[in-house]
Amino acid sequence: MNNKTLLDTAKKFGTPTYVYNAETIQNQYTKLKNAFDGIDVKLHYALKALNNINVLRLLKNEGSGLDAVSIEEVHLGLRAGFEANQIMYTPNCVDFTEIEEAISIGVHLNIDNLSTLEKFGNKYGNTIPICIRINPHIFAGGHNNISVGHIDSKFGISFYQLKHVVRIAKHYNIVINGLHMHTGSDILDPDVFLRGADLLYEAANEFPDLTFLDFGSGFKVPYKEGDIVTEIELIGKKIADSFRNFCKNYGRELELWFEPGKYIVSESGKLIVQATIIKQTTSTVFVGVNSGQNHLIRMLVLMDSA
Ligand SMILES: Cc1ncc(COP(=O)(O)O)c(C=O)c1O
Asked: Hey, what domains does the chain have and what are their CATH numbers?
């Protein structure tokens, strides 16, 4: 989107206006989809990254599924036209009634808590296969608040509690068809993906009914010039090699899933604002605009005083 396009858009729709470039989103989706050396990975777009319904429709048309973390996100996905079975629902600390509602809708359920697993087993037994979110105890992510796979994180069931998962699953006859892990967002060190993958492969040996492994996300995009970026082809090839090897040892072909958010949409959007006033103080020039943190918490916007 060049400045002329942005100015034309501002004239047509007024300001402030969010504008997204569909081509950027499509290109990022395709780049990620093709990065895994011939493996047909399933991508579930993490809609928390940007929940504009037209962006969801665009990604649905590209063939994406959805990663939803609340029942509201599930409903938004359905409204955008996704089928229930295209949605992976990964709640954390929600009331069990929300999980019951999601089950009645028919989405994939990803459980990240032993007590929820007990409740699920007690009510549903082996009637619906489920996925288990594992906490791999890996500290990764751009900063503390988006590092969610470490030992003190509230997300996932500890890698060291897998024996409890197996015991509960046996007791209630629960079918576990997937294992999931998401260590954090904005991951700086790509080796983290491989360390996490190795842990999932090890965990998978405890679960004979798996049909997929979900490696979450965390692919890094640039926020400013010179920023570290995940070299997706490089890491894709390494993960694909290790995954093929794992499937051989497991004895069956499984599906490989990811749930990218930022990687797909971060570079696609602009907030167009109108400069309202210029204020010169003794030290600084401030440009006032007709928007605020209510529209963009991190106010790094392209401003045009035209
Ligand atoms: C469970 C889960 N999956 C996927 C994502 C998307 O991560 P990213 O935006 O880094 O791609 C998040 C982000 O917080 C998440 O919590």
From this structure: 1-21+269-306 (no CATH), 23-265 (3.20.20.10)
- The predicted model scores a pTM of 0.93
pLDDT per residue as tens digits for the range 86-125:
999 999 999 999 999 999 999 999 999 999 999 999 999 9
CA distance 181 to 265: 21
pLDDT of 286 reads: 96
Ligand 1 pocket, CB under 6 A: 46, 48-49, 67, 90, 182, 185, 216-219, 259-263
Cα(20)–Cα(23) distance, integer angstroms: 9
DSSP output for 261-279: SHHHHTTSEEEEEEEEEEE
What is the best residue among 29, 42, 48 to mutate for testing ligand 1's pocket, by most ligand atoms within 8 Å of CB?
A: 48
